[in-house]
């Protein structure tokens, strides 16, 4: 499942990933995220990663995700909440290739991630 929404009274868009992911979910999320980024400056992201079913990701979903390339240029900061080692490593590597400041937090550190985004 893939969902997204703006946190009330903030410039933060929260994305939650878990389980299997469909192309339709990525497409809907991209549309929501584009509208949010167009309406908010600065714009920050909070990405919450649950247990992702890698075998349950539709191949077309990966294409839809790639079509979102470039949106990160409008993001000031991105906080990732995950306890999965491979995602932590991927996020730390991504810091070198994108404009946004990226920090990785454990899933129990939501308050710290939100405080970092709001500073």
Automatic annotation (TrEMBL):
Pfam families associated with the record: SpoIIAA-like
Bilayer-crossing regions: none
Protein name: STAS/SEC14 domain-containing protein
Source organism of the structure: Herbiconiux flava
């Amino acid at each position: 499942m893939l969902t997204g929404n703006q946190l009330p009274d903030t410039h933060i868009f929260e994305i939650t990933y878990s389980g299997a992911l469909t192309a339709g979910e990525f497409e809907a999320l991209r549309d929501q995220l584009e509208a949010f980024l167009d309406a908010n400056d600065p714009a920050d992201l909070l990405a919450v990663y649950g247990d992702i079913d890698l075998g349950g990701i539709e191949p077309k979903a990966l294409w839809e995700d790639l079509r979102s390339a470039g949106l990160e240029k409008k993001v000031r900061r991105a906080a990732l909440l995950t306890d999965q080692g491979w995602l932590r490593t991927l996020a730390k590597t991504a810091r070198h290739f994108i404009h946004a400041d990226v920090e990785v937090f454990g899933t129990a550190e939501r308050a710290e991630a939100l405080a970092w985004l709001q500073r």
